[in-house]
Amino acid sequence: MSEKSESRGAAGGSPNAAGHDDVAVAERLLGAYGRMRDELVKVIIGQESVVEELLIALFCRGHCILEGVPGLAKTLLVSTVARTMALSFSRIQFTPDLMPSDITGTEVIEEDRSTGGRAMRFVPGPVFANVVLADEINRTPPKTQSALLEAMQDRQVSAGGKTHVLPDPFFVLATQNPIEQEGTYPLPEAQLDRFMFKILVDYPSEDEEFAIVKMTTAAGAPAVSQQWSAEDILALQDLVRRVPCADHVIRYAMALARATRVGRGTAPAFAEDYIAWGAGPRASQYLVLAGKARALLAGRFAVSVDDVKQAAPAVLRHRVITNFNAEADGISSDRVIQMLLDEVRIDPSDKLDETLADRVFAKPDGS
C-alpha cells in the first residue's frame, strides 16, 4: 500500500487504517454492499445488474455510460447511489448551446472594495463534485463533450494557466438516449474509451413496472440512509487493486481484447468480417479491474476467468465498432462480443489453481 493510501486511511478513519487487514475491509465492504442494496430497493425497483455494474466501476475508479430510453430512472438511480454513499452530486443537462466553461467553470474579474484592485478568480463549475451526471451527453457538440476529457482522465481542470484538482473520489456518469438521433452528436471513439463501462438500462418486467407505478403514485417519498463515506470508498478502491489475479486470467483478458483488433492476425474470421475497429489496451486493464471488484463483491479474494467474462460486455460494447457487414447481417456489438467469449479459450498449461490465491488474503489464524 502506498504512503498516500496509509495516510489517507489513518486520517480519515477509513476501514483501511493501520491495524486493519484486507480481509476485515472486504468483510465491511460486503456488509455495506448488502445494506446499500436494501436502501436502493426503497427507491429503485429492479435494475440489480445496473446497480452492481455502477458500483464495480466506482470501486475501480472508472466512469460509465448509461444508455436507455427515457423514463427508466437513470437520473434517480445515480442520485440515489450518491446519497447512499454520502457523496456530493451534480447534474449537467447537455444541450446544443452548452459551452465548455459551463461545465468546468470560468474565471471572473473580482474587485476588492477595500483597495479598489481587481483580480481574476476561478468559479468552479458543476464538474467539481464526487458524482457528476452528464445527462444526454450526445446532445452537445464535440467541443463541449471534450471538456470532460481532462477531468475524466487526469481528475483536474485547467483554466487560466492554472490547474484545479477535482474532489476524490470522482465519478462521471453519462446518459444517452438510443432512440432519438436528430440533433445528437455521437461521442468520438477516443472519448468513449475513457469510459470503463457502457451499461444498458432495459425496460422493467411486468411485476417490476407494477411495483414502480404503485410506489410512485402514492403519497410520501422513501428516504435512504448513508452507508459509505468518501474515505471508505477511497480505501475500497485501494483494496480492489490489491486483489490477486493469476497470470492466466490476465492473459485471458488480453486475449479477449486482442481478438477484437482486426487486420493484425489476432482476430478470428468472424471478427475480421464484422469489426471495423477494436479495443485498445485500456480494455484489458478494465477487464482485470472489473474482475477484481466483482470477485470482492462475491466474497472471493482472487479473480477467476468467469469474473472477466461477466465484465466483458460492459467493457467492450462501446469499444468494438462494427462495420457495414455487421449492420447488414443484423449483428450488434453485443452479439460479436458473445461470439468472442465462445471462441477465446485459455491455454490449460497456463492455468493456475485459483484457490491458491486465497492464501494471500488469509487471516492470521489461517482461516
Which class of secondary structure composition applies to the elements?
alpha/beta
Q: Helix content range of the residues, please?
A: 40-55%
Which series of helices and strands comes N to C?
Answer: HHHEHEHEEEHHEEEHEHHHHEHHEHH
Sheet bearing the most strands, described? Answer: 5 strands, parallel
CATH superfamily annotation of the domain at 243-367? Magnesium chelatase subunit I, C-Terminal domain
Distance between the termini: 23 Å
Radius of gyration: 22 Å
Please report which band the strand proportion falls in: under 5%, 5-15%, 15-25%, 25-35%, 35-45% or over 45%.
5-15%
Average the pLDDT over all residues and give the rounded result: 82
Count of DSSP strands: 11
Indicate the low-confidence ranges by residue numbers: 1-20
- Biggest sheet strand line-up: 2-5-8-1-9
CATH architecture of the domain at 243-367: Orthogonal Bundle
Properties at a glance:
44% helix; Helicase, Ruva Protein, domain 3; 367 residues; globular; 5-stranded parallel β-sheet; alpha/beta; two-stranded antiparallel ribbon
Summarize it.
The chain is α/β, with parallel strands linked by helices. It has helices at residues 3-12, 22-41, 48-59, 74-84, 101-104, 142-145, 147-154, 189-192, 206-216, 230-242, 247-258, 269-274, 281-297, 305-316, 324-329, 333-343, and strands at residues 64-67, 89-93, 105-111, 118-124, 131-135, 156-159, 162-165, 171-176, 197-200, 275-277, 321-322.
